[in-house]
């Protein structure tokens, strides 16, 4: 499991027209090559009457799975420019399909490369980008007399309070970035004079909005 990686915030759609050719862009997240392939098939079925449905994706912890498909356009003029947009944005686990409806005017190799690259970039802008940062869910159990102290200190130190549970003691759930769990544990010890118990629970990703590099 990756500690941090960049991907799209969610699904996105955009359109772009040049020289009477219409380009429709579809962007999505995909954790596996199978998911990416399914996404591409879905768009191809939706636009079965299109001139081309070109695509590219990057998948994996080390961006090790990459594929570009020109779908009938001249070699290297469609899928590769889409893939290069993904690389430039430093994204993984992302798939893009650009559907083209030919308008009767040929764009030439250079024109196609620019058109598909722009269509991919417009699609990413519509989807939005995030950095997914892995955090550990931390459960803090303490006497009710310490609830206010804990909540105030958590907020002052930038820790989110994601849930509160009330039993014999209050349990507050928060997040700490993976690898820094001892930082929060030491803070809680100081805040409560070592009377609270901190338990590390499951990891989860937190999405932080970001911009293209």
UniProtKB/TrEMBL annotation:
Chain ranges of the Impact N-terminal domain: 20-121
InterPro entries per record: Impact (IPR023582), Impact_N (IPR001498), Impact_N_sf (IPR036956), Impact_YigZ-like (IPR015796), Ribosomal_Su5_D2-typ_SF (IPR020568), UPF0029_Impact_CS (IPR020569)
Gene Ontology biological process: regulation of translational initiation
One Pfam entry name: Impact_N
Recorded GO CC terms: cytoplasm
Record-linked PANTHER family: IMPACT FAMILY MEMBER YIGZ, IMPACT-RELATED
Family membership: Belongs to the IMPACT family.
Name the UniProt record assigns to this protein: Uncharacterized protein, YigZ family
Organism name: Propionispora vibrioides
């Amino acid at each position: 499991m990756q500690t941090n990686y960049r991907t799209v915030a969610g699904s996105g759609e955009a359109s772009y027209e040049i020289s009477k050719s219409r380009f429709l862009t579809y962007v999505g997240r995909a954790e596996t090559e199978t998911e990416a392939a399914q996404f591409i098939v879905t768009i191809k079925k939706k636009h079965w009457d299109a001139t081309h449905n070109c695509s590219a994706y990057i998948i994996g912890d080390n961006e090790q799975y990459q594929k570009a498909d020109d779908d009938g356009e001249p070699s290297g003029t469609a899928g590769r420019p889409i893939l290069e947009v993904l690389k430039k944005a430093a994204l993984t686990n992302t798939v893009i399909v650009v559907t083209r409806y030919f308008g009767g005017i040929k764009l030439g190799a250079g024109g196609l490369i620019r058109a598909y690259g722009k269509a991919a970039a417009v699609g990413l802008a519509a989807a939005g980008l995030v950095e997914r940062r892995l955090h550990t869910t931390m459960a803090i159990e303490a006497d009710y007399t310490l609830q206010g102290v804990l909540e105030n200190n958590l907020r002052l130190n930038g820790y989110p309070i994601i849930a509160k549970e009330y039993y014999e003691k209050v349990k507050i759930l928060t997040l700490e970035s993976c690898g820094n769990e001892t930082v929060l544990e030491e803070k809680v010890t100081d805040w409560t004079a070592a009377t609270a118990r901190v338990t590390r629970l499951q990891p989860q990703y937190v999405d932080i909005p970001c911009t293209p590099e």
